[in-house]
Write a structure and sequence with these properties.
mainly beta; Immunoglobulin-like; three-stranded antiparallel β-sheet
């Protein structure tokens, strides 16, 4: 639903130096913690898009997920 606020909490297998969702028009930085968790807090859904998850570990090794994270915005009053 348009205006919905999303929070993603990702449990990872090891701590990372950087985590972000990369979309077609924007990149969203996730908050990384000392434990293997990355969070995106209170993201307001304004449009539909697909994002790829990119993780960078402490050694600088980069991993991009082949899995897409689709987010759909439905105008108020409509359901998907």
């Amino acid at each position: 639903m348009e205006g919905t606020r999303l929070t993603y909490t990702l449990q990872l297998n090891k701590p990372v130096a950087r985590a972000r969702f990369i979309g077609p028009t924007e990149t969203l930085a996730l908050e990384v913690q000392t434990n293997p968790v990355a969070r995106l807090d209170h993201f307001t859904l304004t449009n539909s898009a697909r994002y790829t998850l990119e993780l960078v570990d402490a050694d600088g090794a980069r991993t991009s997920s082949r899995r897409n994270f689709p987010w759909w915005r439905c105008p108020a009053g409509r359901r998907r």
